[in-house]
Amino acid sequence: MKKSKRSLFRRVNEWLHLWLGLFSGIVVFVVCITACFWVFRYEVWYFTEPYQRVVPQNQPFLAPSVLLEKADRFVFQQEKKHVAFTAITYGASNKSVFTTYQLSEGKYQQVFMNPYTGAIIHHKKGPSTAEAFFIFVRSGHRFFFLPPKIGSPIVGTACLIFLITMITGLIWWYPKKWTSATRRKSFAIKWKANWKRVNLDLHNVLGFYALLVALALTISGIVYSFRWFDKAYFWVLTGKPYAGIYGSEEGDPVSDTTQTARLYSKPEDRLWQLVRREQPGELARLSISFPKAAKDPFEIAINPKEGTIYKTYERFFDQNTLRELPSEESRKYEELAAGEKLYRMNFDIHVGQIGGLPTKILAFFVSLIGASLPVTGFLIWWFRGKKGGKKSLTPVRRTSDANSQEAVGVEKQA
């Protein structure tokens, strides 16, 4: 019996790569292919939902109370009753403003208006066709089309396994000796070879080129499946107690419930004017959420940068006195340490929007490669010893065989 020349480390590495890749392949395929669609959701919404846009005018936006009054009159005509609005959201100078209200548990409606005139543009009673499609896409990406409590750990576990397969795949890909021949095999696809060789090269070469971006997309996505991973990730980056995507351990600040009377009329206008005085320039988004319970504060989310959310910060104000309440979430991006800035960028990195259209395109192709790798990896395994092809394709060259999923695009919204 011929003894294998491979070291024990190599044999264990290849065994792990093969079987872990086969075990997680279907989940990784779904996560990656849905990521390809999710990357361009904003572009699709821009062209399919024209009510989100207005013609910019050389005049200021109307105050929140004025817009809320117009929205209230419109909704009363529609519903034959007054409703309690939960938020009002302003956008950039070319975006409509919308108010949100809740008719029943979990069912929200929105009234889109021209921020300059208050004219009603659209009454949104549910998800648009494009939005419903992306809700479906996200359910596959985040939960494998299962209930969140079941699907989220399944996706997170598959992505953790994927991290291992990327590392083992790189080790398997790496040749014992670098020669001109191994360089050609490692970095180029031999398109004129038979289909098995082309499939092998697609798996190895594309997996290698996608590796670094795939690692970033995967790690930034796992934080949305496991709180323990998110806490560890936050600590590694910042060296501080956890205050990540699940919120600080103390939770959001609360209003003083001993103060029962409001000291100011039209508090939403006062808060809006306060923010606009401090930040008079163009804002990508300014959203005011109204208190529901006695302990709830006014919550203002401010995003100064269009196309990303990492510069978004939140401010909290007592609902009766309008005293600002301190919160970790109120710190601006510029005030953060390097590790905190990187953590704040997590979602934008994960969905590819951190650098605008170029990084979106990059995330799309890496996700597409990620979806292809379980398929090409399975074909390598399935046909590894079958007739009609050279057995040496299992990989005789130590340059790859199995980066069986080298790219994933995981997310959100979070």
Gross geometry = elongated
* Gyration radius over CA: 26 Å
**What count of domains describes the coordinates?**
3
Assign a percent range to the helix content: 40-55%
Poorly predicted spans: 389-414
Mean pLDDT: 89
- Secondary-structure-based class equals alpha+beta
> What is the strand content?
5-15%
The tally of helices reads 12
The end-to-end distance, rounded to whole angstroms, is 55 Å
If you had to describe this structure to a student in words, what would you say it looks like?
The protein has 414 residues and is an alpha+beta fold. The chain folds into three domains: 171 residues, no CATH class; 75 residues, Nuclear Transport Factor 2, Chain: A, CATH 3.10.450; 104 residues, no CATH class. 47% of the residues lie in helices and 11% in strands. Strands 4-3-2-1-5-6-7-8 form an eight-stranded antiparallel sheet, with helices on one face. A hairpin with a 6-residue loop joins strand 7 and strand 8. The longest helix is centred in the N-terminal third of the chain and has 31 residues.
Keywords:
414 residues, alpha+beta, Nuclear Transport Factor 2, Chain: A, eight-stranded antiparallel beta sheet, 47% helix
